[in-house]
Amino acid sequence: MHSLPVSESLESLGSLRFDNRFTRLLPEDPESRNFRRQVTAACYSRVEPAAVAAPKLLAYSPEVLQLIGGDGDPHDDPRFAEIFGGNRLLAGMEPYAMCYGGHQFGNWAGQLGDGRAINLGEVVNPQGQRWVLQLKGAGPTPYSRSADGLAVLRSSLREFICSEAMHHLGVPTTRALSLVETGESVIRDMFYDGNPRREPGAVVCRVSPSFIRFGHFEIFASRGDLETLRTLVDYTIETDFPDLIQADPSADVARPPVAAAAAQAKFGPETYARWFERVCQTTAELLVHWMRVGFVHGVMNTDNMSILGLTIDYGPYGWLEDYDPQWTPNTTDASGRRYCFGNQPQVALWNLLQLANAVVPLVGQTKPLEDSLQRYSQSFETGWQTMMAGKLGWKRYHAAADAPLTEELLGLLADSETDYTLFFRGLADVSAGEDDSLPASIAAAWYHPDRVDEPLRTRWTEWLRRYRGRVRSEGNSDALRREAMNRVNPIYVPRNYLAQLAIDRAEAGDASWLADWLEVLRTPYDESPGAERFAAKRPEWARNRAGCSMLSCSS
Ligand code: AMP
Ligand code: MG
């Protein structure tokens, strides 16, 4: 029985078809009361969103609405905000929070779980695709530990806009359907420095084929609960990796004797190994994308790693402004810089290793897992090279000759405080002709042209001379190269300070700026007329302003 009111249907949502596989097929926590606890031998606990005072729809994504089989304008029906603010359910929704664990900043943290996320159910759209709807910031769950289960507007807006921007940039990500203000305030000490204040609360509805993380598997392995581990892995393979099953008709032949847990397994060790291999590959692809667009996740704990290789959990993330591989937006990570831009590929590998440790009882031997980890590194490396060649307008990356040229460029970008996004757009405008000038489109990406001294300028001119020669060697026209480069180098990314401007306005009651920004971010590779303000490099006021280049986990 639900305690929240249930609506049969909603015009803007059409008649959504729910098919809740996760709750139907996986073990449920028998305790139905909502209090903080350790939950064992179960993948989820049933819990309803906490009703809020005055839900108001601030923004929504028309593409995601369509994806789940809805249409129309959700602003027209107040029940939309009620459903996605947590005050009402739609027939077919069966809310629950999931159990998972994770390694945080390199240490095993035990049970974490959906502390403020509540899954509403799984929609199957007319194309047969499955989409899980999840409210973030919808109130306490058994996994809330010492926290309140809520989210503030600033972090919710950041999650909403970045999820959608990433999708349009072509980066695998969870999506965001809606951003609803709750009409209630939430107390947060933003920098954990003894200055708590009331902030407006909000709820984001996230949408993804699955919200399963590496930590989902780690928690059962850490407890020695191989039965639930196997059940969850089997479920994941059947639900999200069905092609792996078809590819393994032999299932459990050749099972090694050490594979104790595999004794009753649905799949053979080979399928499990192949599944891990796939996770390594999609993770490598994801990391190449992050490096391409200049995204820093900020908290790459294993509980924030999607099993589908999606970007998940937008917290203290940031976008590179001046290129600096050491940069991290997360003040909690400022001393160790574990999750800084340049470390991300290595951290992903470390996280994959934790996943390998969790699933090794199913595979029965370490060798295939080690091989997959090695292939992760190779795939990342070749993927990175191809990606870099694309950013630079080259058809191919010839490691021997191109590596020194690329390394010199990255050094130059860092030494002359160069905007990562604007530089590559500017480079696309550089003519490949024999010309020793330093084009204005390059200098425009420098944060402090006055600090780019003569020796640095000489290095730039020399680099450009070599670059132009390299481009000429491929015989592409300037126009074709420019077009190709502008397809992989975005002009609009959700810059940190722009998010803060959107937040300032939304907190003052004006969500129109956010709507305009979202519109521009829907086509991030095409110049939108009149949208210069969404492409501008960071203004000086934003350099050290909280929320712009410094963020904490407080959200
Ligand atoms: P994060 O660092 O945001 O990935 O969160 C790590 C863990 O803390 C997850 O289990 C979250 O669900 C939980 N968590 C974060 N913020 C809150 C909150 N305000 N209330 C309850 N749980 C939270
Ligand atoms: Mg998280």
Describe the model.
- This protein has 555 residues and is α+β, with helices and mostly antiparallel strands.
- The chain folds into three domains: 6-215, no CATH class; 232-389, no CATH class; 394-475, no CATH class.
- Helix content is 39%, strand content 12%.
- The chain contains 17 helices and 13 strands.
- The strands form five sheets. A five-stranded antiparallel beta sheet has the order 3-10-11-9-8. Strands 1-4 form a two-stranded parallel sheet.
- Strand 6 and strand 7 (107-111) form a beta hairpin.
- Helix 4 crosses helix 16, helix 8 (269-293) runs antiparallel to helix 9 and helix 16 runs antiparallel to helix 17 (512-521).
- The protein is globular, with a radius of gyration of 24 Å.
- Residues 253-263 have low confidence and may be disordered.
- Bound molecules: adenosine monophosphate (AMP) and magnesium ion.
Average pLDDT, all residues: 94
Element-level helix/strand string: EHEEHHEEEEEEHEEHHHHEEHHHHHHHHH
List how many beta strands DSSP finds.
13
State the helix count: 17
Question: Hey, roughly how much beta strand do the residues contain?
Answer: 5-15%
Q: What is the terminal separation in angstroms?
A: 32 Å
Number of domains: 3
Q: Largest sheet, described in full? A: 5 strands, antiparallel
Give the CA-based shape.
globular
Low-confidence stretches: 253-263
By secondary-structure content and strand pairing, the structural class works out as alpha+beta
What helical percentage do the residues reach?
A: 25-40%
